[in-house]
Design a protein that fits this description.
The complex is a heterodimer. Chain A is an all-alpha fold. Chain A has one domain. Chain A contains 10 helices and no strands. Chain B folds into 2 domains: 12-232, 3-Layer(aba) Sandwich (Rossmann fold), CATH 3.40.50.300; 238-307, 2-Layer Sandwich (Alpha-Beta Plaits), CATH 3.30.70.100. Chain B starts with 11 loop residues before the first strand and ends in a 23-residue tail after the last helix. In chain B, 49% of the residues are buried. Classes of the chains: A mainly alpha, B alpha/beta. The A-B interface holds A 1, 3-11, 13-20, 24, 27-28, 30-32, 34-35, 38-39, 42-43, 108-119, 276 and B 57, 60-63, 73-75, 79-88, 90, 92, 94-101, 105, 109-110, 112-115, 127, 131, 141, 157, 161-164, 189, 193-195. Chain B: InterPro entries: AAA+_ATPase, ABC_transporter-like_ATP-bd, ABC_transporter-like_CS, ABC_transporter_ATP-binding, DrrA, P-loop_NTPase.
Chain lengths: 276, 342
């Protein structure tokens, strides 16, 4: 070590010119995303939900509900219906895990270090979302692979399929902000889980994900129409199967994505900034 | 405390005036003034719950104070937090590293967050691991580190950005004496490299070992301040304990010291339970004088040691009261000096 260890502050006294440029911001997000990825490597069991959930969901829903809805022997119809729906749902499940992850992270001293460093505070949260999107894409790949094994056909073409994946991912990322906000607001990871379930269950089951809304009572059918998960499921179904209206559910889903992100992201970042 | 509220430029790396932070009814920090001169160590001494950690959190932008002003390295903690974060390092009471990451990955990450290039971040991580004797454990997750290793990693993490001002919040609480000495050694090196350090501690001994000046706080307020030796003089300095080779000599030794008429030595007491004679002293010369007297009188000694006053005794001397939280101050031995065999 040389004696000249202490460097003068890089900024002039009197100003708060500590603004973080875009490139620096991206570098910070990269370094923090690497941290989140390394945490997964250190704790491979945390990937269980991503690796196994799609397999279990697809088998359960295609064989348990699919048979009831489409009749025995109509596995092909069932697969075409269920796989795009599960794709919509998985984003939600993974988003929920972000909430408890953030909550747990906050109990650790390392957050204090991040918050005393010259980085945008949002970068800690954005890095988390970047890695979670990666996890979501892996889960989606497994789901589709499993779908192909069961006879899934991409009738709408590869581009439409990629569109469906992108839409589900964008909506999932928007949901993550809600759960990050929740994770920063409640006391324990368990509380995050509990509250998240209360929101998730009605949204998931009161939707077109598992069963056609036409089979539901009128009030519930009405609810499914505004439920963003229904619209996402409808959109991805239309894209994967190449039939049915695409523009309407896609626009509704994108609308929800934008509104949710615009409202919850600033709230989450502000909460993160103020958290003591 | 009354003091001028004008900001004196040059010389002070940290200036705090009338800082207040309340949590509801709890007045965690209740009007604190303090200065840390550039390149020196200020020890903030106080019992648990005195407001030390809240003070550090205010000065490191983790908390926004309710009132008052604090300027660190020329930056106002409230108005210029972003600029300030470029010049400070914090090592908290609880290690602020990511336990799932290896030591190397922790340091590399922090280097990247401080805008070092990949190459520089790698080099700095290697360099600091080496310096803090962690090279062998570099690739192991920090969760597998011992308490002392984790604290060293934490210090290394705080050093990556070469901060001008370092906050060490109870850096040795909960460490065994050997590890504690290692941490002290590192702190001294940081200071010799030119860093300004604000150190909080519950232990008089740590303050004496590391700090140039001391601020004693209790219940969110400064109750005493000054150079360490001034404060020590105020609190009666040290106690010299002398163990005779022949236990029966205790009373005769105490008498001999009391009657020798040594400068500044009021008396000596024989502690029959402990088998030692206690002599309050304030200087090393007095230590030599006392031992000299005993030598002249032909007493055989088997051991001498000196003890710093504990935090409790300091508080008693300053305020005439016990500490507001004096229950667990026995965590680290208040016996400060290794026994010197006579």
């Amino acid at each position: 070590m040389s004696a000249a260890t202490v460097t003068a502050p890089a900024v002039k006294p009197g100003s708060d010119d500590g603004r973080i440029g875009l490139r620096a911001n991206l570098r910070h997000i990269g370094a923090l995303a690497r941290r989140n990825a390394l945490q997964i490597k250190q704790d491979p069991q945390s990937m269980m939900d991503v690796l196994l959930a799609p397999v279990i969901f697809i088998l359960l829903f295609v064989y348990v509900f699919g048979g009831a809805i489409f009749g025995k022997g109509h596995q092909d119809l069932s697969v075409q219906y269920m796989v795009p729906g599960i794709m919509a749902m998985m984003g939600m499940n993974i988003a929920m895990a972000v909430g408890s992850g953030v909550n747990e992270d906050f109990r650790k001293g390392v957050m204090d270090r991040f918050r005393t460093m010259p980085i945008a505070r949002s970068s800690v949260l954005i890095a988390k979302i970047v890695v979670e999107i990666g996890r979501m894409l892996i889960a989606t790949a497994i789901l589709l692979g499993m779908g192909f094994v069961l006879g899934l056909e991409i009738k709408g073409g590869v581009l439409a399929l990629l569109g469906a994946v992108a839409l589900a991912t964008a909506f999932g990322a928007a949901l993550m902000w809600i759960f990050i906000l929740l994770g920063l607001s409640v006391q324990t990871p368990q509380a995050v889980q509990g509250m998240a379930m209360l929101v998730l269950m009605p949204l998931q089951f009161g939707s077109s994900i598992f069963a056609p809304p036409a089979s539901m009572p009128g009030w519930l059918e009405g609810f499914t129409k505004v439920n963003p998960l229904s619209n996402l499921a409808d959109a991805s179904r239309a894209l994967v199967n190449g039939q049915g209206a695409v523009a309407h559910p896609v626009l509704i889903t994108l609308g929800w994505t934008v509104v949710i992100t615009a409202v919850t992201m600033p709230l989450a970042v502000a909460k993160f900034r103020k958290k003591t | 405390m009354t003091r001028q509220t004008t900001t004196t430029k040059g010389g002070n790396a940290v200036e705090v005036r009338g800082l207040v932070k309340h949590f509801g009814e709890v007045k965690a920090v209740d009007g604190v003034d303090l200065d840390v001169r550039e390149g020196t160590v200020l020890g903030v001494l106080g019992p648990n719950g005195a407001g030390k950690t809240t003070l550090v959190r205010c000065l490191s932008t983790l908390l926004v104070p309710d009132a008052g002003r604090a300027v660190v390295a020329g930056f106002d903690v409230v108005r210029q937090p972003r600029a300030l974060r470029r010049t400070i390092g914090l090592t908290g009471q609880y290690a602020s590293v990511d336990e799932k990451l290896s030591g190397w990955e922790n340091l590399y990450m922090i280097g990247r967050l401080l805008d070092l290039s990949r190459k520089d971040a790698r080099r700095r991580a290697d360099e600091l691991l080496e310096r803090f004797s962690l090279t062998e454990a570099a690739r192991r997750p920090a969760a597998k580190y011992s308490g002392g290793m984790r604290r060293r990693l934490d210090l290394a993490a705080s050093m990556i950005g070469r901060p001008a001002v370092l906050y060490l919040d109870e850096p040795t609480t909960g460490l065994d004496p050997r590890t504690r000495n290692e941490v002290w050694e590192e702190v001294r090196r940081m200071v010799s490299d030119g860093a300004t350090v604000l150190l909080t501690t519950q232990y008089m001994e740590e303050a004496e070992q590391l700090a140039d000046e001391l601020t004693v706080i209790d219940r969110g307020r400064v109750i005493a301040e000054g150079r360490v030796d001034e404060l020590k003089a105020k609190t009666g300095g040290r106690t010299l304990q002398i163990r005779p080779a022949v236990p029966g000599d205790l009373d005769r030794m105490a008498d001999a010291i009391a009657q020798a008429g040594l400068d500044g030595i009021a008396g000596a007491t024989a502690d029959h339970d402990g088998g030692v004679v206690n002599v309050p002293i304030i200087s090393d010369e007095q230590l030599t004088a006392v031992v000299g007297v005993l030598g002249q009188r032909g007493f055989a000694l088997s051991g001498i040691s000196t003890h710093l006053p504990s935090l409790d005794e300091v508080f008693l001397a300053i305020t005439g009261q016990k500490t507001s939280e004096s229950t667990d101050s026995g965590e680290v031995p208040d016996q400060s000096f290794a026994e010197v065999s006579a």
